[in-house]
């Protein structure tokens, strides 16, 4: 097979293989055609399977530990409140478009999580959903911004208030955002010289979190015949049409990837991790609360606290270590034994009905090649990601069925999708064992470039 002339990557954040490959494949003619002609399979994500850092891991071939990015929010120091959002300035490893830019290839990078603020490339870049608002400088070069706004209006980088029960405006905004993104993509691939194009659509993620309970008959909040029962399926059909229109502009000589960073699954409920910490004697309060209260507003007695946790689709557990945290109480000599103790207790947890929860707990040093920045001491998948972590206290107990940050009925899953169509080939072959790191390695290989030895991924074979 000859080296690729052009490569296009269409990213669908949170798209699960169970929907794309199984449940709805027959009703998605464009994606079905790509699968029939190409190589495809489930794509194993990173630990944890979170948008930030997963897309940067995919495009750099480095795991979260190597990047020093363990989620949206990361500790900037060992204080008790030093959490920062990981934007592009936190990514210090080269990604595919950096390598391609240096090699002289022209790139278009659009909306890939981890690209705000945008960086200098040999081509153009539009920042991701972390762009604070449409007034921010979200393009490189800067003059691209007025060009886009004159044609498409203010940039819709994300869906506002997607954790709300007011569903109609959310659904309308998802469509508006997706339509704008694909219109921008069609404009850029038609008006620029390029060798590599990549876009990521966040609408798939937002519609899962906002509407999962309406279509999944196994979700405990599902009501048959509800008005939004077809919302996710209809959106996928719309999205399939948008991808089809874009592919017509890309041409048959373009190598095409369709990938996602992780999947999605129904959420059973939430584990109030700090309520659990308190019940087990690891966290001490100076004053209790009787209404939902974020940990940042709690009066914690740090002199008597051994550990605390953060909320999210997974939980990060932090230990209060002498000489590390300001009021540390755990002797460094006992650090590993305390960590093991908490890990064992979390893995042995039962659900609200007394059944095994199936929680998985990871030590960063055991799942990453190296550990940079300030990692959590433990990474926790409650119920193997069927339960989310709730950081607030005062929710009425350890188990909750309401989210402290607004309605959200889906969690992330460990497998996303991978589809690759090489020009002139009709394989229709399913691949096993694909990892998220393989995407960047395969892109470089298809361009005939050497994959850097420090990248974790392996190219998908050409034959």
Q: In short, what is this structure?
A:
This protein has 13 helices and 21 strands.
What does this structure look like?
The chain has 463 residues and is of the alpha/beta class. It folds into two domains: 6-266 and 413-446, 3-Layer(aba) Sandwich (Alkaline Phosphatase, subunit A), CATH 3.40.720.10; 269-407, no CATH class. The protein is 30% helix and 19% strand. The chain contains 13 helices and 21 strands. It has helices spanning 17-23, 29-37, 51-60, 64-67, 96-102, 144-152, 167-191, 203-215, 231-250, 273-279, 335-347, 364-367, 438-446; strands at residues 6-12, 39-44, 73-75, 83-85, 107-110, 123-126, 139-140, 196-201, 254-259, 263-266, 269-272, 307-310, 315-319, 360-362, 378-381, 387-390, 399-400, 410-413, 415-421, 429-430, 434-435. The strands form five sheets. Strands 1, 2, 5, 6, 7, 8, 9, 19, 20 and 21 form a ten-stranded mixed β-sheet that branches. The protein has a four-stranded antiparallel β-sheet with strand order 12-13-15-14. It has a three-stranded mixed β-sheet with strand order 16-11-17. Helix 7 (167-191) packs parallel to helix 9 and helix 8 (203-215) runs antiparallel to helix 9 (231-250). The longest helix has 25 residues, at 167-191. The chain is globular. The N and C termini lie close together (8 Å).
